[in-house]
Amino acid sequence: MFAIFKREIRSYFQTVVGWLFIAAVLALYGLYFYAYNLRSGSPYVSYSLSAVSFIVMIAVPVLTMRSFAEERHTKTDQLMLTSPVPLGKIVFGKYLAMVGVFSIAMIVVALTPLFLSIYGSVPLGESYVAVLGFWLYGCACIAIGMLMSVVTESQVIAAVLGFAALFLGYMMSSITSMISQSGNLLTKILNAYDLYTPLDKFMNGCLDLTGVIYFLSVIGICLFLSCQLIQKRRYSVSTKKIAPGAFSIGMIVVAFAIAVVVNLVANELPSTVTAIDATSTKLYSITDTTKDYLKTLDQDVNIYVLAAEKNADSTLSETLQRYEDLSGHVKVSYVNPSTNPTFFQKYTTDAPTSNSLIVASDARSRVIDYNDIYEYSYDYSSYSRSLDGYDAEGQITSALQYVTKDSSELPVVYEITGHGETSLSGGFSEAIEKANMTLTELTLLKEEAVPDDASAIIINAPTSDFSADDAKKVTDYLEKGGKALITTNFQYKDLTNFESILKAYGIERVDGIVMENDSSYYYNNIPYYLLPEVESSDYTSSVSGKYIFAPYSEAFSYDGSSDNVTYTALLQTTDKAVSKIDADNATTSRKRRRRY
């Protein structure tokens, strides 16, 4: 076999074929590497490899077309057929030679993440998982191309058949989606020849054992079929004996059966065993906190994905698979909106976006909109957005807790209204919902007191004063151990009754707007665009070492003399900060130095 390997690989470099193949792969990869990684600054080489995967379908048939077709055309295959070397070793030796040529190109590709790391941080784990997946994909394509070379003596026909077979495997996912988005027996059979979906998992940074087994199965089947097709030409057998064709068909059936069983078993294994999260942010990993929670889950919960399984978000599907593997009480189902457009009406009146989730138990349900799973930042100057985070675990775990908790365990937060309070932003309301709190408006004028079920109240920047009675209701609630989140608006003063709530705890508002005179603590050369110091506390631990942007801020002062009150400063300005009473007419940010 080694002699066959040496002869074949030498022949590829004694002709233009090997050099042309390597040059084509590296040139096209280099083009995308320059566009995506060097010019656009992306640290992920998987983008470039994904783009080149289509080019492999064109380059591989050029490499494989002569492997057997040329020898058959020149009749030199007779030497191979009569050789004492086992046929399997001949086929495997030729295959390894072509893989060797491809591997030379991949070695160069494997150096690019290291080169890219010179310019910044590169997720090497993700990069090399993508390189491994692409190498396996290429090896499978070579095996398919070699099989096409076995069936014909024309190199041109072998190349055309090779391209057609690879193109079919590349497009199979789209073809089956056109046949049936919800899936049926035919699409399941056809998807067995879906070459791109296993590759896509590697490109997303997931080292997937099922993908490795699939590509190895394709390689094994193609090499075995190549041996069987050559074997049929190797012997002429009397009709009185068992025909080699019958033997070949039986062996082929057995080989396919073994491959199918191995892949079925691999796909039945939990993703915690078959998939390794190689992403730098541990995108697919489930935290220990969630794992511990899922171990205690004792109620059945259904998670409905509003998308055909074939068209569902692959990253989200991988996360959901891990939830299903970690708890026998979690069941994930895919609902195709095209065939079942009114399904969502059982749980909500507003139609969720595609790929949204509905988490439902016997007690209640929650809709997780697809737009809440991914976190984006927006650049309004260029009308563009960038992906900042993936919050599937946070949203799903929160929803599971919400639908399985007893009603008495769900906190109620009251938003005080009736004094021109600023409405809570969508992001803040969503955060409250994610924490499984029920947000309810409360007009104090209509109530004798803050309800007993209040876990907390929110007073968000009132613009008109409280009545003395309303202020007393709030202070009575706080004296009983109640909790409150209170904010103010510097533009509205003389709110005597409202301020009495703060004064009851030794806190006073400072007139004016805070301006910082230390340039390290404000943004864009604007003194009232504060970047205050983040003090160390349990409340600020998640933002420690980060910037908090606080424009148009009002200061609070406290004497700290009360023995019954503990004061914890969360954000503070420097000693150079001042409070400007008439900010609109201020000509300087200096004067009246005070620390807040």
TrEMBL record:
GO terms for cellular component: plasma membrane. InterPro entries: ABC-2_transporter_component (IPR051449), ABC2_TM (IPR013525), DUF7088 (IPR055396). The chain crosses the membrane at residues 12-32, 44-65, 95-116, 128-149, 156-179, 211-230, 242-266. Its main location: membrane. GO terms for molecular function: ABC-type transporter activity. It is found in: Cell membrane. The keyword Transmembrane helix applies. Residues 281-349 form the DUF7088 domain. It is a multi-pass membrane protein. Keywords: Cell membrane, Membrane, Transmembrane, Transmembrane helix. Residues 43-206 form the ABC-2 type transporter transmembrane domain. This is Uncharacterized protein. It comes from Roseburia intestinalis L1-82.
